[in-house]
Amino acid sequence: MAGREPAVGLLGEDDRVMVSLRRLLIAVAVLPLLVSGCTGDPEPRTEPSPSASSPTTSPSTAKPVPRPQERACYRLTYAAAVAPTSDARGVACASRHTSQTYAVGTLDTLVGGHLLAVDSDHVQAQVAATCPRRLSGFLGGDAADLHLSMLRAVWFTPTVAESDAGADWYRCDVIAVASDQHLSPLSGRLGGVLNSAAGRDRYGMCGTDEPGTPDFVRVICTADHTWRAIATVDFPDARYPGTGAARDRGQGPCENAGRGVASDALSFQWGYEWPTADQWHAGQRYGLCWAPD
After folding, report:
1. What is the per-residue DSSP string for the chain?
2. Neighbours of 175 (CB within 10 A)
3. Could you give the CA distance from residue 82 to residue 24 in angstroms, rounded to a whole number?
4. Looking at the predicted structure, is the pLDDT value of residue 100 above 80?
5. Residues 252-274: tens digit of each pLDDT
6. d(Cα 259, Cα 256) in Å, to the nearest integer?
7. CA distance 268 to 261
8. Looking at the whole model, is its pTM more than 0.90?
9. Beta strands 227-234 and 73-74: pairing type?
């Protein structure tokens, strides 16, 4: 395997090959998903273009919208989940759904005595920082458990018209990414789900092939897969250490992690993904270790 551009190291090879980390689809995670207006995770997100479902009521005729309810469930598409606003109606959590609200708060739109618009950078940045930060407390587990899962935070605010009519809330939802631009149905109670091995397995991050190979697709572990993300490599650096240092940082930890899950400690495969400079600046300060599943 030495000399292949894909990402896997095979114990005993002199020339281990590793892959640079492709960012997980939703920019809401470190999102900038990494990804509310997407990656960026996440956890900042790409500002989508206005959707057909966005309310168009003028401020003069807009009616106040009810404050969202925590633990409410919704049946959202991927596109709706990464939009900055939502007019979706809640559904029974016992029925098929793809998002659940885990936090609702009040926007701070007053800065220095000036009232800011709900879609201003300052207001949106509040929510982009708050929702990802609160996700781990809801799901349980630790930071590594969250990074090894396909669970991501998304968030919504009122439209400008709704804000002008008095709406001052933000809403944080959790979604599970099934694969590129597809959501997985949620099941059971998500509160504390990463505290259990069953929950970590249900929502874990897996791959359809060796990371970095042409057939590799990042998928939720309930889908068909052959590789699994098994550990994280944390970077305490204040600045991006550079590609070479980022690549080297995970060799030992990921080799050890691969050995730990292998049936033969003398012959096994492992893979490592490290953050690129762009991902680093978007907030992703960790790499991922992989092994055949």
Report:
1. -TT-SSSEEETT-SS---EEPPPPS-BSBS---B----B--------PPPPTTS----TTT--PPPPPPTT-EE---HHHHTSS---PPEE-TTS--SEEEEEEEE---EETTEEPPTTSHHHHHHHHHHHHHHHHHHH-S-HHHHHTBSEEEEEE---HHHHHTT--EEEEEEEEEEETTEEPPP-S--TTGGGSHHHHHHTBEEESSSTTSTT--EEETTSS-SEEEEEEEE---SS---HHHHHHHTHHHHHHHHHHH-S-TTS-EEEEEE--HHHHHHT--EEEEEEE-
2. 25
3. 14
4. yes
5. 999 999 999 999 989 999 999 99
6. 5
7. 9
8. no
9. unpaired
Give the integer Cα–Cα distance in Å for 59 and 244.
53
Q: CA dihedral in degrees (218, 222, 223, 229; nearest 10)? A: 30
**Which amino acid is present at 79?**
A
- Position of tokens 């809403």? 171
Predicted confidence at residue 47, as pLDDT, reads: 38
CA–CA gap between residue 186 and residue 169 (Å, rounded): 24
